């Protein structure tokens, strides 16, 4: 029996080690772009494939990140590279088709992609953000630079380089720009060079590559905070893979008036955009689901977002580096759930399989865009064995065909952006809509054009659809950034340090003066949130502003209330004279440089002479009155213990005498906060509880309090 037991242990250890190795083999090195409203990871293998990120619903690419770094918009990106008549160095024969790549459904096979470099570069290091003498920004741990270079085109750039078994070396730059005007797009700059390097050892196989295509795939999923897998907040689980997303392509026909007319909304633009369409899995109707409202509570529109991409440059040929307006040459939407993409271990030696992929990469332009196929119906109701097989669709962008002799290269640049109505507008429109929906009130419904209506579903839909104008505007700014040679004027830099200190009757803020030397600098603005930060429920308020004429580098927040947690960010600003996008409007540094994620709060002075002043507030605690206690959102389970000595031990017991929570109070203040959770993280039930306080010299006191839930 003992031998059997030892044998089983060895088997378990071996199996565990196998799966650990398997997991590690699939894990890719990544770098993060997290300095703006659009925040995304970038991996070392060319495209962020489905399932790569395991947190939440495995989606990524958050926008607007100010209201949650889980505002996910993307299910996957994919990049396939294909050619014809490839002289394969492994099989030593001509392959009619050769296709390799990253994603879209899984990590690329290790015999196709060979990483060389992955670096996060920045113009300057992340500011030092401190609350009560401790590091106070979660973003700082993601924004760790491999190199600093003040001459970079963007504040942050991820540089990627890898070789492929086709002999093409891919060099990629992903550029992120901070500030409200430029923070909702990234620019992807690719160079594909025929170096002949075909394996991880650096073996060179010189040959001319024929009919080469570079094929990018985008699968958007605007579930965001409405659904994180099976733990949906209020949205449908299926929205996590974008089954109701709708796509619209534009710019394929460069002779069409929509492309050539300077008054056209897509003048000289070629690309696509996507948005959340009503989801058939929701409990509300088609007309009610535009924007995915939280119909059971406040009506918040959780998915009133648009995403898209435009081509900024594509070489005509290796010999002609001028922009080819006919590219991309393939613009069909396609199901990501057909066999050519669901195969998670595709063989580059299977010519039939490769020919299917190559056909999709090179099939040309659509006869009409996806949204016209969908019509005024649930997107999932449009089905096609190639385009939509039940899980939604994705957008393809194929560039080619190119002929690349040994040493030749092709340069392709595109911008990717996200936009929509502001989160504040999502709250406003949703709140108006839900009152009509529940028939609790009938507020005035003002349409985007200024007219009024009583059709509350149409009202909400029309506001959601203004996101189209927003995404096109954002893409145009990205194009302007590129065509200017990345010379659009940027905001002044953020303060190099931002310090927040809790106090007895105020919260003190101070910051460095490094931004004052920037051209056209004109002061600072400070915002504050209460109870939470970087959360879809967060509300920010401006509490301070100064300009160059009344410049200061410290501020005391004397309006904070006791018992609440506060979070802050500071932005440098200029005078608006150099704004090339919106002349006259000041440029602000990104809030993500300085936003605090650790709370500051008012702290009472400790009581030294007696324990008689110790009390529990509120007592009784009644959850029905939480709005009048410490709020009804993030701190609604909070109680405060006031009148404490500077150092003591706190313990909470049930009426039966069970110890459920304890803490050593060593802050030297007279208060401590408790969020009604046991030491194991469970919310306590209704009942009578006992607070026990003991000082190091042996003095002690008990206080009874009541919780009603």
Describe the 3D structure.
The protein has 709 residues and is mostly beta strands. It has three domains: 32-112 and 165-420, Distorted Sandwich (Beta-galactosidase, Chain A, domain 5), CATH 2.70.98; 119-146 and 489-603, Immunoglobulins (Immunoglobulin-like, Sandwich); 615-708, Immunoglobulin-like, CATH 2.60.40. The chain contains eight helices and 35 strands. A nine-stranded mixed sheet has the order 9-6-10-11-12-19-16-15-14. Strands 3, 4, 5, 13, 17 and 18 form a six-stranded antiparallel sheet that branches. It has a five-stranded mixed sheet with strand order 8-7-22-23-26, with no helix packed on it. Helix 6 runs antiparallel to helix 7 (456-465). Mean pLDDT is 92; it is low at 1-26.
Outline of the structure:
The chain is mainly beta and 709 residues long.
**Total beta strand runs:** 35
- Which band does the percent of strand residues land in? 25-35%
**Oligomeric assembly:** single chain
CATH topology of the largest domain: the name is Beta-galactosidase, Chain A, domain 5
Percentage of residues in helical conformation = 10-25%
What is the CATH architecture descriptor of the largest domain? Distorted Sandwich
Key features of this structure:
8 helices; single chain; six-stranded antiparallel sheet; nine-stranded mixed sheet; 35 strands; 13% helix; Immunoglobulin-like; mainly beta; Beta-galactosidase, Chain A, domain 5; disordered N terminus; 709 residues; 33% strand; 3 domains
């Amino acid at each position: 029996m003992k031998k059997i037991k030892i044998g089983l242990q060895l088997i378990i250890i071996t199996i565990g080690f196998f799966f650990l190795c398997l997991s590690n083999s699939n894990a890719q090195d990544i770098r993060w772009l997290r300095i703006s409203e659009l925040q995304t990871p970038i991996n070392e293998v060319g495209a962020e494939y489905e399932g790569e990120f395991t947190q939440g619903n495995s989606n990524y690419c958050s926008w607007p990140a100010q209201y949650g770094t889980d505002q996910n918009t993307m299910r996957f990106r994919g990049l396939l590279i294909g050619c014809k008549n490839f002289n394969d160095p492994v099989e030593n024969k001509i392959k009619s088709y050769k296709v390799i790549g990253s994603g879209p459904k899984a990590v690329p096979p290790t015999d196709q992609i060979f990483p060389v470099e992955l670096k996060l570069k920045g113009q300057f290091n992340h500011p030092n953000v401190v609350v009560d003498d401790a590091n106070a920004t979660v973003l700082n741990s993601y924004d760790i630079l491999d190199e600093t270079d003040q001459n970079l085109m963007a504040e942050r750039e991820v540089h990627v380089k890898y070789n492929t078994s086709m002999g093409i070396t891919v060099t990629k730059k992903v550029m992120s720009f901070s500030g409200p005007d430029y923070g909702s797009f990234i620019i992807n700059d690719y160079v594909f060079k025929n170096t002949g390097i075909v394996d991880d050892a650096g073996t060179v196989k010189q040959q001319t590559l024929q009919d080469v295509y570079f094929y990018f795939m985008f699968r958007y999923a605007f579930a965001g905070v409405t659904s994180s897998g099976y733990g949906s907040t209020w949205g449908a689980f299926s929205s996590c893979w974008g089954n109701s997303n709708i796509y619209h392509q534009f710019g394929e026909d460069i002779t069409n008036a929509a492309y050539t007319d300077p008054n056209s909304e897509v003048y000289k633009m070629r690309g696509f955009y996507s948005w959340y369409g009503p989801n058939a899995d929701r409990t509300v109707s088609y007309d009610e689901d535009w924007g995915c409202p939280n119909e059971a509570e406040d009506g918040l529109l959780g998915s009133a977002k648009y995403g898209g991409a435009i081509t900024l440059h594509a070489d005509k040929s290796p010999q002609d580096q001028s922009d080819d307006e006919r590219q991309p040459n393939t613009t069909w939407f396609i199901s990501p759930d057909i066999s050519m993409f669901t195969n998670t271990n595709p063989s580059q030696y299977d010519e039939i399989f490769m020919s299917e992929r190559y056909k999709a990469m090179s099939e040309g332009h659509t006869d009409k865009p996806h949204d016209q196929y969908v019509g005024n119906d649930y997107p999932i109701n449009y089905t096609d064995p190639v385009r939509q097989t039940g899980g939604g669709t994705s957008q393809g962008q194929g560039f080619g065909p190119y002929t690349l002799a040994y040493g030749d290269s092709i340069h392709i640049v595109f911008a990717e952006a996200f936009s929509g109505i502001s989160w504040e507008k999502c709250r406003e429109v949703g709140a108006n809509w839900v009152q009509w929906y529940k028939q609790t009130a009938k507020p005035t419904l003002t349409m985007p054009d200024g007219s009024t209506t009583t059709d509350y579903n149409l009202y909400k839909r029309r506001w959601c659809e203004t996101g189209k104008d927003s995404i096109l505007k954002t893409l145009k700014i990205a194009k302007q950034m590129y065509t200017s040679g990345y010379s659009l004027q940027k905001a002044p830099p953020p303060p190099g340090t931002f310090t927040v200190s809790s106090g007895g009757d105020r919260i003190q803020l101070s910051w460095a003066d490094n931004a004052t030397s920037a051209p056209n600098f004109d002061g600072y603005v400070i915002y504050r949130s209460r109870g939470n930060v970087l959360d879809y429920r967060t509300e920010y308020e401006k509490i301070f502003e100064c300009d160059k004429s009344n410049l200061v580098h410290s501020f005391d927040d004397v309006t904070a209330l006791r018992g609440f947690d506060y979070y802050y960010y500071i932005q440098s600003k200029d005078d608006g004279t150099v704004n090339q996008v919106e002349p006259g409007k000041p440029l602000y540094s990104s809030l993500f440089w300085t936003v605090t994620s650790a709370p500051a709060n008012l702290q009472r002075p400790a009581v030294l002479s007696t324990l008689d002043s110790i009390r529990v507030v509120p007592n009784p605690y009644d959850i029905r009155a939480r709005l009048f206690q410490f709020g009804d959102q993030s701190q609604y389970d909070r109680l405060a213990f006031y009148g404490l000595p500077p150092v003591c031990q706190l313990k909470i017991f049930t009426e039966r005498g069970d110890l459920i929570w304890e803490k050593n109070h060593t802050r030297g203040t007279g208060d401590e906060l408790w969020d009604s959770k046991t030491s194991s993280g469970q919310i306590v039930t209704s009942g009578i509880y006992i607070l026990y306080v003991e000082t190091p010299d042996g003095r002690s006191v008990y206080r009874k309090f009541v919780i009603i839930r």
